[in-house]
Amino acid sequence: MNNKKIIIANWKMNPQTTEEVLRLIKGILAQRLPTNVEIIIAPPFVYLDLVKKNCGKEIKLAAQNVGWAERGAYTGEISALMLKNTGCDYVIVGHSERRHKMGETDEMINLKLKEVLKVGLAPVLAVGEKEQNGDIVKMLTQQIKSALKGINISDISRLIIAYEPVWAIGTGLSDTPDHALSAALLIRKIVGGLYGSQWAADLPVLYGGSVSEVNAIDFITQNGISGALVGSASLELSSFIKIIKAAGTNE
Ligand code: PGA
Question: Is it the case that residue 250 has pLDDT exceeding 90?
């Protein structure tokens, strides 16, 4: 398993100004950053170029979403190739806010994954059950199998999966580290059934959902959890820096 931990800042529809974007980026870069942590920022589309130009080598760039079509008459959409050409390395696909607030279907998520892989970007596939104590085996199996339908093992080496229980996102009510770990193991088991257990053992699986400067260490330092997808705490500079440092504690 790759022992570099992965921390992704999902800024969602924030911040509102370029000044604040630059303040956040420069604030991170002013730190002595651990070299064993892959730091990734996922800003809104309009800031991708600005972040790319200011993030140095220490921070990688992700998009929060991508269109499912290759090109053409899709007003308002952004293609995977455009993201690649703007300097993105990663794309979040199937975030629950897109599934539940924007009506994204499993079929669209499958098409998006195929586009992202085709152009050579790394997809961060977000999955998770809607209700606390929901049937996670059923939910995760269904989400993962439909997202990966028709995708060959040779095309999927860059995949990352983020376990994000919907009830924990933006609520301040995080999952327990034990439950998140068992969900990460379940994800590896499901993916292992599709592509082989050796491959699944190397798959990075992140946790997301109310990760904070206080609880981050309990998730990130678990062996089976490869890092975190961080929403609101990534917009608080001091909190986000503490989360990055927590991920780098073994350095
Ligand atoms: P949160 O968001 O950390 O604010 O709960 C996480 C996410 O949506 O990725």
Answer: no
